[in-house]
């Protein structure tokens, strides 16, 4: 199997994840703007999750361009990442329904933490395909975003029991850090 097949499969799964999240919305019974106020927590949790899935899609797309040889290890690590991301709609819905109660918010942070660790494992497996002096390995070695994100997700999960606002700040911080796509892989591809 070529990497583009795995990328196409992943794109399909991520598209389904986004679709499932939006299907969680129910049409309000009232027909004025005030009817949307009750949906506020659901809308906020959806926006967070949509941005996160978009960030993963963007970076995953770039990362798979660096695959030299497709193998079972890469396929399983990719499935591990997709597994954790497939739980995002559940935690998004629970967090929104509960108005950001502590446990659903903490679980949301844990799922994002596990997704980030899975992405890190996938990235490491792809880096192992390149020699130690490769420009790709050098560029990826400066991965301050990837090293900081799991730590911030852990803080977000733990602080959910203190305040959902604090957790939300850390979720927002990670999204802001990653919102600008990672240019390291693009620089390596341009240098070839």
From TrEMBL:
Keywords: Ion channel, Ion transport, Membrane, Potassium, Potassium channel, Potassium transport, Transmembrane, Transmembrane helix, Transport. Coiled coil: none annotated. It holds the Pfam family TMEM175. It is found in: Membrane. It is a multi-pass membrane protein. It catalyses: K(+)(in) = K(+)(out). GO terms for molecular function: potassium channel activity; proton channel activity. The chain crosses the membrane at residues 9-27, 33-55, 76-95, 101-122, 151-180. Its main location: membrane. One of its GO terms (cellular component) is membrane. PANTHER family: ENDOSOMAL/LYSOSOMAL POTASSIUM CHANNEL TMEM175 (PTHR31462), ENDOSOMAL_LYSOSOMAL PROTON CHANNEL TMEM175 (PTHR31462:SF5). Belongs to the TMEM175 family. This is DUF1211 domain-containing protein.
């Amino acid at each position: 199997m070529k990497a583009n097949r795995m990328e196409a499969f992943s794109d399909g799964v991520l598209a389904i994840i986004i679709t499932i999240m939006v299907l969680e919305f129910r049409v309000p019974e009232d027909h004025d703007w005030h009817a949307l106020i009750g949906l506020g927590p659901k809308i906020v949790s959806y926006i967070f999750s949509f941005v996160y899935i978009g960030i993963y899609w963007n970076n995953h797309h770039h990362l798979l361009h660096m695959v030299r040889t497709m193998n079972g290890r890469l396929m399983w690590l990719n499935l591990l990442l997709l597994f954790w991301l497939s739980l995002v709609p559940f935690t998004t819905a629970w967090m929104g329904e509960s108005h950001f109660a502590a446990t659903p918010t903490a679980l949301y942070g844990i799922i994002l933490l596990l997704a980030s660790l899975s992405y890190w494992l996938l990235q490491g497996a792809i880096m192992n395909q390149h020699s130690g002096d490769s420009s790709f390995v050098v560029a990826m070695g400066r991965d301050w975003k990837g090293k900081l994100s799991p730590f911030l997700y852990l803080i977000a999960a733990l602080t959910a029991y203190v305040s959902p606002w604090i957790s939300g700040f850390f979720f927002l911080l990670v999204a802001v850090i990653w919102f600008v796509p990672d240019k390291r892989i693009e620089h390596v591809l341009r240098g070839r």
